User: What shape does this take?
Amino acid sequence: MAHNRVMQWAVLARTWWIYDANQQCPFRSAYRLTTYLQGLHKPVYHRHGDVGDHVVVFNTRHIAMRGEFWRTYKHFHHTRFAGGFSRASAYRVHEEDPTRILERACHNRLSGLDNKRTLMKRLHLFPDEEIPEEILENVTGQIQQVQAIPKKLEDYSQREIDSFPRLFKMPEDYDIESYKRENRLEPDQHTSKAWRLK
Amino acid sequence: MAASILKTIACATARSTLPKTFRISTFMHLKVQKRGYDQYRMRYLKEMYQKRLDVGPEKQRRRSEWINWNYDAEIYAFGQRLGEEFNESTLRQAFINRSYVEGERKKREELGIDIEAVPLQLEDNTELAEEGFALMSSYVKVYLRNIYPYMFEEGISAVHDYLTTDKMLAHIAKHVGCEDLILSEEFPVLESTLSTAFKAVIGALFNDKGQEQAERFVRDFVITQLIEKDINELWHIVNPMGLLKAMLSLNGKGEPEPRLLWKSGANTIMSLYWVGIYSDKEFIAKSPGETVLIAEEMAAREAIKRIMKTDDSRAPLIIGRAAENLMLDYNRVNISAEDIIQKFYEKSHSEKNSSTS
Amino acid sequence: MSNNAIPRDFLKNVLQNGMGRYVCQLQRITFRFCKSHPGSRHMRDFIENHMLDFTQKNPGVVVYLQPRRHRPPSIVAEFLNGRREMMEMIDKEPEEICKWTEHMRGRSGVQIVNMIRNNHTETPSTQGIWHPFMFRDSETALTKFPNPQLSAVKQTGKTATDYLLEEVEKK
Assistant: This one.
C-alpha cells in the first residue's frame, strides 16, 4: 500500500522542462510546448487527469518570425467598453512585452480546453537568459528546439572564411560590398495616419 | 371510516345547492376543484410510512424460524455444494456451538429433567475446531514456506496471522453457507462462533477424509484469499535499511549505497525523487518518493522484497488444478530476520574487538 | 443526465470463487404456488415434470416447495452472500420457469447493475506502470540545465556545405 502510494506519485508527477526560444518560430514552438503543457507526451494522458508538465521558456526576446509577420501579424484587444478595440503589429507588442507573442501563441493553441488557464499558469516565460534559481532547480529535462539555427556570417571565424574554397570567380566590375548598404523602407508607410500607433 | 362517510353525507346535504364540480375541503374550508385522485390518500400514506418508521425495523430472525427450512437437507446440501462427502454425524457436530449445548443444559435444568438420567446427546465443536485450526495453521505455513522459499519467517508468520484471524475465517464461513447452519444461543451469530464453526468443518473433513482432502480444502478457501493482496504489506518492517545492511554483509557483499537517480520539482509540493540502492556498484532496487528520505526508505523495502523474491512481478500462487500434484517439504524452515540481525551484530562486534585489540 | 443516478458497480468475484474450486452461489430456491388457482398451472406443471431434473443435477442447492393459497406463483432464490431475489412466475410457461431457475443457479448473488468496466484486476501490470523517468538515463540528474547540446536540433545528413568541404579536403 505504501509502495502503491509512492508509485502513483511517481506516475502522475509533474516534470519541469526548459526550452530555449532563441531564433525559434513562436508558432512552431507553441505547437511543441503545448504538447508538454497538456501532457500529450505521456502514455498516461487523459483530458480529465491533471497530467500536464511545467515548461520554462527563456530567450523569448530573440524569437524569429517568418517573412513579413513582424509587421503583418496583429494582436487584437478589446476592453469590452465602447470604443475599446485596438490592434497592434507583432513588433510593437514585442517592444512593449517581449514574452507576449509566445504567450499568446501558446494560449491560442490551447483554445477549446476547459483547463486552459491552469495550463497557461504552468508556462513560465523569461525574455532573456536570467531565470530565477528556484525555478532552475526544478528543471529536469530540455525540450529540443524546433528550428536549426543557421550559422550567420558573423559566426564564422576569419580563418574559416579565408580557408573556404572559392567556387567561382566574380566579374571584375561586380560590386561585392553592395549587401552591406541599407535598402529597407520605413515601416508602416502603407497604412493611413489614423491607424498608426503613436 | 363510518364517521367520515357520515361527515361527507352531512356536508353534501348541507351544501347541495353548490355546483358539482366543487368539493369542499373539510380541512381548510377552501373551494377546490375535483381532481382525479383522493386528496386524503397522500396524507394517509405519509402518516402510515411515518408510523412504520417509528415502530422500528423488522426483527432479525434466524433462517430456521421461517417455514421453508429443513436442517437435514441443508446439511446434505452444504457438503455437496463444497464438493466434499462428509459423514453426517461429524458435520452436524461441527456446527454445534458450546453456547448451544450449555443453553440446552439450562433448559433441561429449568424443566427439571435430570441430566444424568437423560444425557444430552450433543457434543460441541471445540475439539473439532482445535484439530481443524492446527491443520489449517500448519498447512498454511508449510505452503507459504514452500512457495516463497526466500521469505523471512516473520513475514510468513504475518501472512499466516492475517489468514487465520477470526474476521477472515468468519468472512469465508459466511460466504460458504455456515451462518444458517450454526446452532448457537446468541443471534446474530458472532464472528468467533463463525470462525470456530469453519475450523470445525476443516476438522470434520480431516477426520472423515484424511489430511490430503483437508489440505485441498484449506488451499481452495483460505489460501485463495491471498490473491490480489500484497503480502509484503502484511509484515511491517521497522528498519528496512538495517535489515538490508545485515543481509548484504552476511552474504559477503558491500554496504548498501543509496544514490539519487532522478528528481523533479525540488522546490515544489509535487516534488519527486527517485533513489536507487547499490552494493559493490551493482544495482539492487530503486523507488520513488515525495522526499529523499521517503524514497530511500521505500527503496530499501523494495530491495528486501527483491531478496525475498516477493516483488510485484512474482509468479502467481499455485492453486486449483495446478496444485494437485504439489510436493511440499513439511519440515522446511525459512531464514529468520531476527537471526540475521543477531549474527550481523555479533560479526560487527567481533570485528570491532579484533580491530581495537 | 447525471452519471451517478443509475446504479452501477465494478465487477466482483465473491470470495475468489473459481480460483480454488467453483462453489455454486445459489444456496436455496423456493417455489411458491397455489394448489388450485389456474394462475399456478404452469408452475405445478414445472414441479411435476422438470423440477426433479434440476434437483438431481444440483445436489448443492436446497429446493423448497411452498404452497400458498390464493397467491400468484413465484420463485425465491437465496444466495451465499445473504441476498434474496424474488421473481414472479405468472403466465410463464414451464420451459421459461426452467430457464429462470437455471439463471438463478448460474448467478453470483451480487445485485445486477450496470458494469462500469467488463474487467477487474488488482494487479494491472507485472512489468510496472509507466512513469516519466522509465526510459530516461540517470545522467539527467547530473546535467545542468539549460544544456545547449540537448537543446540544439541534431543534424541529420550532410548539408551541401559539408559535402563541398569534404571534397576539397580529399583533394
The mean pLDDT of chain A is 90. The first helix of chain A runs from residue 2 to 11.
